[in-house]
Structures are given as structure tokens and as C-alpha cells.
Amino acid sequence: MNIQLTDRIKANAKSFSKGQRLIAKYIEEHYDKVAFMTASKLGSVVGVSESTVVRFATEIGYSGYPALQSAMQEMIRNRMTSVQRLEMTSANYPIERLLDATLDQDIDIIRRTKDTISHEDFYKAVDALVPVKRVYVIGAGSSLAVASFLSHYFSLVFDSVQLIDAASEAQALQQIVHIGEGDAIVGISFPRYSKRVAKSLKYASDRGSTVVAITDSMLSPLAEHAEHVLLAKSDMVSFVDSLVGPLALINALIVTVAIRRREQVSRNLRDLESIWDEYGVYEKVEDKSNDK
How many domains in the chain? Predict the structure, then answer.
């Protein structure tokens, strides 16, 4: 179990009520199940009230039951295999509840990302990105999807943007071999963290590049090598990592940097619109709503 959580339980054990001792014992033995139980469900299983469960969470130093859940989920995400995640979801949620449960969890992830993101860190990262010459973007695994999204839109903002193929460590480093001062790299990774992304950020940092990490914790290996760390919540939904929080943060980053570079972005967009029209890149959909 999460070492910090274990320490908190041990440090407060002497002051626990009978009901809180039951909760602590159940968490220690079944933390993988508790991580996805509501406070009401946990109370029902243990035989205490929901309010007792909530008080237990605050008693051991968390802001509330959701924070206690997050601590357990963080530990699970780093240790459980994909097969174990899938089996756990199957056991905890009836199939007719999966749509609502998944959407509700994504909504909660975005809310918690908004509540915890540091505005100061965000705008410092924007300030650091605005003047750079070249931008490299790297992500691996499921994070590659949001890295590709960021690279696509940053190509409308900067003259030179490269999405790094992190299929292998050697290949990733080869693609950033010329990175240096005046350049920036944005690395994206969430548990389980990519070693290739972390090592690429270290190389870029050693070369004097601006390094921005988008991850979920200051304990992430990406944070160690980044000047600017942007934190977003990324909880797991079964064996799938939910990336709605990181994607929302990346949307905000794209828009803010684009506004700061709006003259260049406007020129780029005008040129692109002209090219798209000339070469018929997109189908034009006629508005027939007024046709009689």
C-alpha cells in the first residue's frame, strides 16, 4: 500500500474510534477495492456510517474522502498490470453502469485538474514557450495521442515543430540531437511513466533547452528534469488511462500561447486558408437551410 497512506494510518491509529479501526483494517487488506468505492459503499461494507468514513479521511490528514481515494488510486496505477485493472473494473462496476461511471469520472478529473493547477506555473510555462525557435513534443504510450494533438496545433503557432517518435530510446535521442538554447521540448507522460520521455527531457535540459513537463505529480520522473511542470489529473478507467485532464490543460496551453503569438498565428492561418482553398483540401458544405 502507498507508504504515505500507511504512515498516516499508523501515526493516527491510537486516536481511532472502533469504527475508524475497522475502516483502517479494511483499507489495509482491500485497498485495491476501496480505491473505487464511494464513501457510502465503504461504510456499508465495513458496517459504519458514511460520515464516519469521511471523518476517517480527514483524521489521517486528507482534505476529504476523494483525496484518500486518489492516494490509493495513485498507488494502484503504478503497480497493477493492465489485466488486473480490467478484472478490478469488471468486479466493481456492473456493465449497465459503465457509461455513467466513466463519464462521471472524466468530469471529476477535469474539475480536479482545474482546482489544482497552478496558474503561476502555467503562465510561466507560456512565457518560456512564446519566444522559442523550435519546439519538440514527445509522448509515449497513451500519451502519444495528446502529444500528437499538441504538435498538430503548435505547428500553426510556431515555424518549426517536431513530434518525436519515442519507439525506442535511441530513436528518440537521435531526433533531438540538435536541440539547444533557444529551443523547447514538451514532454508528456503519466503512470506508468515512460523512461524514454524522462531521458529525452534530461538530454534536452543538459543541452540548455527550455523543458516543459506535462504530468500528474512532482514525484514524476519528468519533473526532475523540467524547468516548468504542469500538473493534470489522470486517473485510470479500467485498463484505460483517462487523459481528459491533460487534454484540457493542453487546449488551454495552445490557446494561450497562440494569443501571445497572435500576429504570427494570424499570418500562418491566412496562408493556410489560401492553400486549402486553392488545392481543395476540405470539402465545402453548402448551407441549404434557407432553400425552399
Answer: 2
